Amino acid sequence: MAKSPEQEHPTKAFGWAASDPSGVLSPFKFSRRATGEKDVRFKVLYCGICHSDLHMLKNEWGFSTYPLVPGHEIVGIVTEVGSKVEKLKVGDKVGVGCLVGACHSCDNCANDLENYCPKNILTYGATYYDGTTTYGGYSDVMVAEERYVVRFPENLPLDAGAPLLCAGITVYSPLQHFGFTKPGMHIGVVGLGGLGHVAVKFAKAFGVKVTVISTSTSKKKEATEHLGADSFLVSRDPDQMQAALGTMDGIIDTVSAVHPLLPLIDLLKSHGKLVMVGAPNRPLELPIFPLLMGRKIVAGSNIGGMKETQEMIDFAGKHNITADVEVVPMDYVNTALERLEKADVRYRFVIDIGNTLKAA
Ligand SMILES: NC(=O)c1ccc[n+]([C@@H]2O[C@H](COP(=O)([O-])OP(=O)(O)OC[C@H]3O[C@@H](n4cnc5c(N)ncnc54)[C@H](O)[C@@H]3O)[C@@H](O)[C@H]2O)c1
Ligand SMILES: [Zn+2]
């Protein structure tokens, strides 16, 4: 008979898990593996709440397994390293994002793109090499192979830096890959949530012009005065949208729900690129004619490889880029998820695991 989550491994661990697609979390005892020779063990101090956690908790993508301990914006302090660990030592500040494994023999892995390895292993709700289930960062301790652990820049605060592990790399990678970093470019960011607000900060650090595209004016002041966006476009205002037609080189779309793409495609110049990073649970309608008429591209992008994740966080350290966070106690997590569903967060919830996760 399969072992229970509590018996699979030698080390006791404690976190919060959902037991079914209601997605409601409650305290949960499980176990972590012993620190292998290439592994890094760390005490979790903070973990961000990504909208993907919400999709997964509610099984909106159809591949969730329960019990599910979410969390893939995990930061903490190293407490033990295996004998073959080379770049990290006890006491270091580290982070783990969405990935904890991959095949390491395919073309994607050879090109530092573990994020596109067909056999990559997600930080939670996946099956690890040894057949056990992976559990995420809404928990007291984490063990991961060194390849999947990033060194956290000394100058960045751990709480506001945690969201970089997913939100940060998810927007940094397409900005780089699709060439949205060249000065003089005009980039749109759709959806000013966890991913979107960090996209504005990275794009500004690259020196491009940034327009936030939002359904309402409610975030205009913050976007332009606080986050540094150059302009703000209300997608429900036909006059504003008309005036902005054909003005953008690229758009990063972070929207978590089904929404129309035509108005966004129309904002692109010829050869412009609309890059989807938001992951709605149902297909979107893709109008073809407006693509043909300007040789435009619609693309997708999924987090980033480990080499690029380290590059991203080092870049963030250099430019002092962090997320704007609401730090909340562990027992607030269900309320935080309800608020996230209503986009009622400025702009990322981060759970204070170190101070508020109390073993039952
Ligand atoms: N591609 C990847 O690698 C990757 C990584 C992380 C997250 N994601 C996905 O990105 C999406 C966003 O994640 P997040 O954590 O930033 O979420 P979030 O909830 O913080 O932000 C989503 C934003 O979309 C806006 N929005 C929601 N419905 C909308 C609609 N119908 N029209 C316009 N705007 C709408 C919300 O107001 C909010 O500002 C999620 O689907 C998440 O799963 C993808
Ligand atoms: Zn995420």
TrEMBL record:
Please list the GO terms describing molecular function: mannitol dehydrogenase activity; zinc ion binding
Q: PROSITE patterns of this UniProt entry?
A: ADH_ZINC (PS00059)
TM ranges are none
Q: Which cofactors does this gene product need? A: Zn(2+)
Q: Which InterPro entries match?
A: ADH-like_C, ADH-like_N, ADH_Zn_CS, CAD-like, ER, GroES-like_sf, NAD(P)-bd_dom_sf
Query: Does the record's keyword annotation contain Translocase?
Result: no
Positions of the Enoyl reductase (ER) domain:
23-351
Reaction(s) catalyzed by this protein? Answer: D-mannitol + NAD(+) = D-mannose + NADH + H(+)
**UniProt record, GO biological process:** lignin biosynthetic process
**What CDD domains does this protein's entry cite?**
CAD1
Query: What top-level class of enzyme does the UniProt entry assign?
Result: oxidoreductase
The EC number(s) given in the record are: 1.1.1.255
Q: What does the UniProt record say this protein does? A: Oxidizes mannitol to mannose. Provides the initial step by which translocated mannitol is committed to central metabolism and, by regulating mannitol pool size, is important in regulating salt tolerance at the cellular level.
- Which family is this protein grouped under? Belongs to the zinc-containing alcohol dehydrogenase family.
* Protein name, as recorded: mannitol dehydrogenase
Q: Which organism is it from?
A: Vitis vinifera (Grape)
**Which gene holds the coding sequence for this protein?**
CAD_7
